[in-house]
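Two proteins were folded this term; both appear here.
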Amino acid sequence: MTIKVTKIEEYPLVLNATHIAEIIGVSKRVAYEIMEKSGFPLIRIGRCKRVTKEALFKWLNEQYI
């Protein structure tokens, strides 16, 4: 199994489930489940689900406080 490590700065400003899965280290399916949680800063564009990079890291930090 190969782990792809990307610098946070290299990710786009608006992230999709694949990006979230890579950043958090979970499967894409679990990333979609996380995106549906209450309080997650989800942006819906039609059927697409996105989150800004800044909002994702703010939300992650709030989960551990």
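Next, the second protein.
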Amino acid sequence: MSTDGPPDRAPDGARRTRFTERLVCGVLAAAVLLSAIEAFARPSAPWWPFVWQNAWTLSAVTLGCWAVLRTVEKADAREGRPAARPDRATGPRDGDAGAWDGAPSPARSPPSRG
């Protein structure tokens, strides 16, 4: 079970924040890809500048939306509402499937020859 985000029973605000995080990554990746195309291929289509510039504008807008949602999520956590994310330093919360006990994994020794 993955613990890299809010569990299925997480509040809707946490789900919106997580979705927006993924959207920011996707839009930013598209903007970088379009910039690489701009740098190497120099497209001459009349619509190209509109697409290229708006990809960066959209990335700024989605980043702003994510910042607002994340701030609200952190404020909710400070007010005692359920935390949206498990603490990444200590692993999943108690009762989560596959809970981590906090102990480091045992070091593996190389196989002995002989």
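The chain has two helices and no strands. The mean pLDDT is 78. These notes refer to the second protein only.
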